[in-house]
Amino acid sequence: MNLGMTEIILVLVVALLVLGPDKLPKYAGKLGEAMKEFRKFSSEATKDIRESIVEPLEEAQKPLKEAMEPFTDLEKEVKDNVKDIKKSFTDMGKTGKKEEAKSEDPTGESPAAETPAEGEALVEEAPAAEGETSVQEVPVEESPEEKAPAEV
C-alpha cells in the first residue's frame, strides 16, 4: 500500500480535526510505539519460522540431493551420448554427399548413387498424391565380391 503526499496530508488534517491539537502529539507517539512493537514482533516471527521450518527442511534436502547426484550425472551422460549419436548420424549423411561428389565421373553419373554401401538400401522416389512427396526403400542384395572373403 503506497500512500502519496496528498493522502498523508489528508490523514493528518482529519486526525487534527478529530483529535484536536492537544491530543494529536500524544496519539502520534502511541502510534509510533505500536509500529515499533509490530516491526519487532514481525521480525521475531520471521526468525522463528526460519529456524523451525526452513533450516530443518534444508538439512533434510541435503541427503536427498546427494542421493540424486548419481542419477543427474547419469542423465547428463545419457543426454550427451544421444547428442553424439544424433551428430554422428547427421555427419554420416554429410560424409556420404561429399564422397558422392568426389566419386562422380566426367559423364556426370555417380556410381555411388546406384550402389549404396553395405547395410544401406537404395532409395527411390515413388509416385505420390498431388502436393506430397513419398520415398520408397528398395532392398539391395550384396554382390558376390562382398560375400567372398578377401584373399591375402
Please give a structural write-up.
- This protein is mainly alpha-helical.
- Helix content is 70%, strand content 7%.
- It has 3 helices and 2 strands.
- The chain has helices spanning 5-102, 111-114, 144-147, and strands at 122-126, 134-138.
- Strands 1-2 form a two-stranded antiparallel sheet.
- The longest helix is centred in the middle third of the chain and has 98 residues, at 5-102.
- The protein is elongated.
- 0% of the residues are buried.
- Spell the H/E element sequence: HHEEH
What's the N-to-C terminus distance? 91 Å
Question: What topology, given as strand order, has the largest sheet?
Answer: 1-2
Secondary-structure class: mainly alpha
Mean pLDDT value: 75
Number of strands: 2
Note the main sheet: 2 strands, antiparallel
What ranges have pLDDT less than 50 throughout 5 or more consecutive residues? 122-126
The DSSP helix count reads 3
Global morphology: elongated
The proportion of residues forming helix, as a percent range, comes to: 55-70%
C-alpha-based Rg, rounded? 40 Å
Strand content: 5-15%
